[in-house]
Structure formats: structure tokens, C-alpha cells
Amino acid sequence: MRKYLAIIIFIFLSLGAAAQKLEGTYLVASRDTCDLYIDHYRPAPDSETRIGDKEKPTIVFVFGGGFIMGSRNDKFYLPWFKLLTDDGYGVVSVDYRLGLKGVKMNFDLFHILDSAKNTKKAVDMGVEDVFAAIRYITDNKDALGIDPDNLVISGSSAGAIISLGCMLETCSPTGRTANLPEGFRFKGLMSFAGAIMSDSGVPEYLSEPGPQLLFHGTDDGAVNYNKTAFGRFGFYGSSALVKDVFAKKGYCYQIFSYLGVGHDIAANMVPTWPIQKAFLETNVVLGKRRIIDATLDDPTIYRWDQSVTLDKIYKK
Description:
Blueprint: H1 2-14, E1 24-30, E2 35-41, E3 50-51, E4 54-55, E5 58-62, H2 78-86, E6 90-94, H3 112-139, H4 141-144, E7 151-156, H5 158-171, E8 188-192, E9 195-198, E10 212-217, E11 227-230, E12 233-237, H6 238-249, E13 253-258, H7 273-285, E14 292-296, H8 310-313
Parallel strand pairs: 5-6, 5-7, 7-8, 8-10, 10-13, 13-14
Antiparallel strand pairs: 1-2, 2-6, 3-4, 9-12, 11-12
Helix pairs in contact: 3-5
């Protein structure tokens, strides 16, 4: 896993990140195991923060790392943050507890149910912590200059799993949503190699979610592009979410499936920026229901030699 993240860091730094100005770091919650902070980046000076009379959203970002490592302020995210802020979007990068750190994970027939339960617990912890950040943003909206009614959640890998869980729970409330302002909703979502971890079968949205942009490799060995189900537990990747839920319900989504690509998509925020920009402008800001289901054979996607799998992430 450390080798995998080191490669991602190299990819991002090799893209030539300029210094990214941090507006501020704020404590949002204290847990038994750690304190949780957010980093706030304002839109760049003189950037265009509106499209006509509509304000561009702030992007709430949840980092990746298999629920065992990673942090909100890893330098390899800065090139992407700069693309966003230069284009008039604010960014809030959030902490969450690493729920699988130190937890033994096995994926053979005899242990997969225990691993599924551990993963669901880690996701739920992450969702709870992101909601704490949303609560802080809401309570301090004037000081931060952030509109809490205009937030897009986004995540990479484990962070994408948490982000998808956050969107689901704001549409199908749980005990964790009690910490949110009444009626809170995300304006949209951007997922880089994400999935929904469910303990109750196919995910069900009791109200329609905001537009969702999903990037995924068809050969992802870490976060299943399709789905894995066992009993009431299921891991629903981007393709399964579109086929089993979004398309059937008529929800607004865009999915970009990359042929033969593995978990590399989790690190491809910068190369996919033009797609994100179009989604944010058209689907989120202007509110148009632009639906895309595209399969790409894209040689510009950054890859590494050794595929990332669950067994390699959670070495026995």
C-alpha cells in the first residue's frame, strides 16, 4: 500500500504543482482517537466564481488510503486543488478516522464476512466525521465565506466510498445525519474509484440525490467496478450503482468507465479535470440533467506496473 501511494505522489508532483495557498486549518471535532481538522482553500483571486447569476460550489474532498493511511493535506492533491481554485471553486479537505488501521483483513471464504463488517464500520465512521465537518462549515459559514447549501462532495478510493455513503445517507437519513442541518443536501458528487458498502442489499435512496460523476477502471482490483454481494452485505461499484439504481430510477449521473484500467483512476483527478469542469458547470451550477454513460480506451490515463488489489493493500 505504501508503494502504491508513493507512486500516486510521484504522479501528482510530476505534473508540476505550483504553491497552493491555504486559507486556514480548523478543528471541527475531537474523537477518542484523534482530533479532526479541515483545510480551507478559497477560490483564487480574480478567478470567476459565478456562471451568470449562479455561484460555483465549494468542493468538500475526502482523501484515499484504504482506511489505513492518507491525510487531508497530502501534497499530491495540491495540483488538483489548484485547478479547482483557479477556476473559481473553493475547496475544503477533511479529516476522518482511519477505521481499518491495525485491523486484520482477510478475503477468503471463511473471513470475508468479518472483513465486510469491519469495512462497513470504517465507512460509517468516515461518514460521521465528514458530517462533523459539514456541521462546522454550517455553523461558521460567515467566517469561512462558504455557502453550506452549495457543497459538492468528492473523494478518492476510500474517500470516494465515504463520499458516496454521505450522499446516500443525506437522501436516506440515518442516526448520523442528525448532526446535519435540517434538510441538508449536497449539490453533487464526484467519485474517483468509489463504491457503496451496504449491509441491507441494493442501496436505496428515499429521495433523489444530486447529480453524481463517477470515474472507474473496469479492471479495478481494489474497489470493484461492478458488485460483490454476500448475504445482506454488498459492495456496489460505479457500474452496479448505475445499472441497479441510477438508470432505473432516472437519477442524474455521469459515468466514465476506463477499459482495462485498474485502481489507477483513484489518482487521476488532474487528467480528468476537463470532464469534471463540464460536469460542475453544466450539471451542478446550471442544473441541467446531462446524463453520460461513456466507456473510454484512454492512453493518457496515468498507470503503474503492478495492479492494486485488496490482498496487497491489507497484507496479512
